[in-house]
């Protein structure tokens, strides 16, 4: 007991000194931020172009805390010394750092600096910068939450500094992912699985919301968290000094100030309106990143083989599930290849692969696919045990090696594709490099050899037409002297490929293209240059939003709409294109929570004010009713234009296929950030194909992006074609994603883009989906949906007959007989519909298919137990056939009747 009393006294004494130390620290902190000459700031705050609009609230909160701080302009940071010599650096909502700034930050932190960051820090930076920030902070912003959530203390032992009531309340933020062994989630969101809201390491703190914005959190909560984080870093044993070695002692110790005009005082309190906006003096815009790249910020299955960082329950499940799914994809591809009519009699490759799991030190080479699959199943089964034993490095190593070995088992030497849409975006750069019809012919030869049957040909880019136009003011200067569109239509049709004109809709210019053609980077494009009143603006009066590269048209301007409709009519009547694809059919990427909004063109403001009596420039996201009206107004501008395009062009060309390239963000988030409501276009029947840009560097992430839309019941009869980005994607990674598409209930895919179509991928696609004969008449789903349904059903029958023949001892003969008989009834109904499309034949085909789908689940009960993946694949392919019938009813029967 005496020892216990002594221990308790010692703890109380230690606690008392800690409290005294904290009192002294905050006594030191609690002096006006405009410091006297004798007072030194202990905190540096970074000011950038991106937090300009939030600076008033940021400075107010800093004043509330009473911390002495100085301001560092991000644009002035070129080296580690430029980050200053203060122990703590605060990055409030800074989403863009250059590589030089990130490297300088790494050096500054290595000398004893501590970083506090908030919001999606670095999320608009290049991938290399994002990766470096991730390692510096031991965590990263994954994705924003749709709704306000309650913050609560993290699991496990609660740190004393983070155990204060004022730290926990309702916040609109995002999920932060711990990514290092020493990372700790000190606060979590009160939602399913309790994802992290605040993550710390010894030298960093990442708050998962935009600090200093009323739309995200209260001033009280913001102030409490910053105060707690600064105190933590200043009182850390690692921080023996209040200075960072080698840092510059110079930084502005006045309250954050903006540009000073003649006769003005320095004041950042007013947020500029569209007509008053001025750029920050001495601050360069952040490095632009395409908004679609931000999808790659979200959670990926990144597996570093030598990392021994903990693997949580969700990641463990994901790792095991992905191995099991990959095994299923390999088997599914092998089955399709085995029953293909052109290759079914060919013996399997006898090539011996020296496959070895390095982590398990197997010495015996695995000679065939069955042994690789068996070993992969063992690894998948044992993963939870390794993780439970905290053998994380070995678990990751086994997972990676097994994945690589499974990729080697894909049958890439045999044809396995069914009738499907196989599309590729043929980009402007590739067209320009072709240089002539002869050069373009070589590209189309490669695409035809690879089995591509649909090309989205970049026809309008940054308001320049690829062809000599009588409507547009200027042909692209890089293609003057020839007509690439006329050549492409001819070359495509000679090779039985469809040619769809791909056009930029509301994006009017491109700074990157300006650099290529050697004009001023701020040139708005030839159309806006001629009609500046057609331009759209953000809430600061800029035509190009911060961090982006493109000015946009005012979607509400009737003259803009008339011009675009006339241009598209020229394309589809002057050229025998098979379709038109609308890209940039949206507003620029925005973030209302961060105060970045768009759509304040002259026509839009006038129309909205006429409807509501309010100028939208004076509305903020906090005014929920008015903000909803403003969002609905902008969304309707895009919706109505799609309807106009569909109606007007189909009057000219009834067989025209209309497609849209769209963002795969959740619907509420997409409407707030892009005003792109493509579910409405699909349900109305305005479009034939939805091509979501489901771009990801790994198959699990690709599936998570695509799956919600594939399973959606909100798309009417419109076909959905997932997009796959080839940039930085290994060829086998691309093939893996293709195989996943073939196992899901969709009718094809689109590859972005031709410029990344390398020889290795070319060879793989030529073998697995290339045409058997040059003049083969394989149907294209969007053009011949009923015939495609019949052909795909034939291939499906071949697959399950092949399997049942091998397993007939396990399946009752009567079951096989019933299945074959009923399957033949469906085949006959589909063949009849394909040969003679009519309402009565469609009704018969649909009825027999629906009955068969119900019975098929019962017939395949044993197969579902033995191989659940393959059974699900067959159900998905039956669902694809049903969707083709639904699309065909609208596309063929409805139009023929009208």
From TrEMBL:
Keywords carried by this UniProt record:
Signal
Q: Is the keyword Lipid metabolism assigned to this protein?
A: no
- Give the span(s) annotated as Disordered: 238-261
Keyword check for NAD, yes or no: no
Question: In which domain of life is the source organism classified?
Answer: Bacteria
**What SUPFAM superfamilies does the annotation carry?**
(Trans)glycosidases
Sorted alphabetically, which Pfam families does this protein's record hold? GHL10
Looking at the record, the residues that make up the Glycosyl hydrolase-like domain are 420-724
PANTHER family per the record? GLYCOSYL HYDROLASE DIGH
Name it: Family 10 glycosylhydrolase
Organism annotation:
Amazonocrinis nigriterrae CENA67
């Amino acid at each position: 007991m005496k020892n216990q009393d002594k221990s308790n006294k010692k703890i109380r004494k230690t606690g008392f000194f800690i409290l005294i130390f904290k009192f002294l620290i905050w006594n030191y902190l609690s002096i006006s931020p405009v410091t006297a000459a004798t007072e030194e700031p202990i905190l540096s705050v970074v000011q950038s172009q991106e937090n300009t609009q939030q600076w008033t609230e940021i400075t107010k909160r800093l004043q509330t805390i009473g911390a002495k701080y100085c301001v560092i302009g991000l644009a002035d940071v070129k080296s580690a010394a430029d980050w200053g010599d203060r122990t703590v650096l605060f990055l409030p909502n800074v989403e863009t750092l250059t590589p030089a700034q990130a490297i300088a930050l790494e050096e500054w932190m290595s000398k004893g600096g501590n970083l506090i960051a908030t919001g999606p820090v670095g999320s608009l930076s290049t991938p290399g910068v994002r990766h470096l920030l991730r390692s510096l902070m031991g965590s990263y912003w994954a994705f924003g939450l749709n709704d306000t959530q309650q913050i609560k203390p993290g699991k496990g032992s609660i740190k004393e500094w983070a155990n204060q009531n004022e730290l926990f309340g309702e916040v609109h933020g995002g999920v932060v992912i711990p990514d290092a062994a020493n990372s700790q989630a000190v606060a979590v969101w009160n939602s399913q699985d309790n994802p992290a809201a605040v993550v710390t390491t010894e030298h960093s703190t990442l708050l998962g919301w935009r600090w200093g914005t009323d739309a995200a959190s209260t001033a009280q909560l913001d102030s409490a968290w910053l105060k707690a984080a600064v105190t933590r870093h200043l009182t850390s044993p690692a921080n023996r000094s209040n200075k960072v070695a080698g840092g510059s002692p110079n930084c502005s110790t006045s309250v954050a100030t903006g540009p000073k005009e003649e006769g003005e005082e320095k004041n950042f309190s007013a947020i500029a309106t569209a007509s008053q906006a001025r750029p920050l003096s001495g601050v360069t815009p952040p490095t632009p990143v395409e908004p679609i790249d931000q999808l790659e910020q979200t959670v990926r299955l990144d597996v570093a083989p030598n990392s021994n960082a903990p693997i949580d329950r969700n990641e463990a499940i994901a790792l095991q599930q992905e191995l099991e799914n990959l095994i299923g994809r390999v088997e599914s591809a092998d089955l399709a290849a085995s029953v293909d009519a052109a290759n079914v009699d060919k013996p399997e490759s006898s090539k011996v692969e020296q496959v070895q799991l390095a982590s398990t030190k197997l010495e015996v080479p695995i000679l065939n696919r069955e042994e690789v699959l068996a070993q992969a199943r063992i690894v998948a089964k044992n993963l939870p045990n390794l993780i439970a034993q905290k053998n994380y490095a070995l678990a990751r190593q086994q997972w990676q090696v097994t994945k690589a070995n499974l990729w080697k088992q894909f049958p890439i030497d045999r044809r396995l594709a069914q009738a499907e849409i196989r599309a590729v975006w043929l980009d402007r750069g590739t067209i320009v490099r072709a240089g002539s019809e002869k050069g373009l012919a070589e590209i189309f030869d490669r695409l035809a050899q690879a089995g591509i049957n649909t090309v989205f040909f970049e026809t309008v880019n940054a308001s320049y037409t690829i062809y000599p136009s009588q409507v547009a003011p200027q042909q692209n200067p890089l293609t003057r002297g020839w007509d690439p569109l006329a050549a492409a239509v001819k070359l495509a049709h000679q090779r039985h490929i469809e040619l769809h004109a791909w056009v930029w809709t509301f994006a009017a210019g491109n700074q990157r293209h300006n650099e290529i053609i050697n004009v001023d980077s701020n040139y708005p494009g030839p159309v806006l240059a001629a009609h500046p009143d057609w331009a759209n603006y953000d809430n600061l009066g800029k035509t190009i939003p911060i961090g982006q590269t493109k000015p946009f048209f005012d979607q509400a301007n009737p003259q803009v709409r008339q011009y675009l409709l006339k241009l598209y009519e020229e394309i589809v009547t002057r050229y025998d294109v098979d379709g038109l694809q609308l890209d940039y059919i949206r507003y620029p990427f925005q973030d209302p929570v961060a105060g970045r909004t768009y759509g304040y063109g002259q026509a839009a403001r006038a129309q909205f004010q006429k409807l509501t009596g309010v100028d939208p420039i004076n509305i903020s996201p906090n005014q929920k009713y008015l903000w909803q009206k403003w969002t609905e107004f902008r969304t309707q501008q895009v919706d109505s234009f799609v309807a106009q395009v569909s109606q007007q062009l189909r009057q000219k060309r009834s067989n025209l296929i209309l497609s849209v390239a769209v963002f795969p963000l959740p619907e509420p988030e997409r409407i707030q950030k892009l005003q792109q409501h493509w579910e409405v276009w699909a349900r109305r029947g305005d479009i034939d194909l939805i091509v979501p840009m489901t771009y990801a560097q790994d198959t699990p992430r690709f599936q998570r992006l695509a799956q919600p839309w594939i399973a959606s019941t909100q798309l009417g009869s419109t076909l959905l074609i997932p997009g796959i980005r080839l940039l930085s994607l290994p060829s086998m990674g691309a093939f893996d994603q293709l195989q996943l598409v073939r196992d899901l209930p969709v009718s094809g895919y689109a590859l972005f883009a031709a410029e990344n179509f390398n020889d290795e991928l070319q060879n793989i696609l030529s073998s697995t989906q290339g045409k058997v004969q040059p003049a083969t008449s394989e149907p294209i789903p969007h053009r011949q949906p009923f015939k495609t349904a019949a052909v795909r059903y034939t291939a499906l029958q071949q697959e399950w007959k092949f399997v049942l023949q091998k397993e007939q001892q396990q399946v009752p003969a009567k079951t096989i007989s019933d299945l074959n008989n009923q399957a033949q009834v469906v085949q006959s109904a589909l063949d009849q519909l394909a040969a003679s499309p009519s309402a009565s034949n469609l009704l018969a085909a649909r009825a027999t298919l629906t009955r068969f789908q119900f019975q098929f689940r019962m017939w395949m009960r044993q197969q579902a137990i033995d191989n659940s993946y393959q059974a699900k694949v067959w159900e998905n392919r039956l669902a694809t056939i049903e969707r083709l019938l639904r699309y065909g009813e609208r596309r063929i029967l409805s139009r023929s009747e009208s």
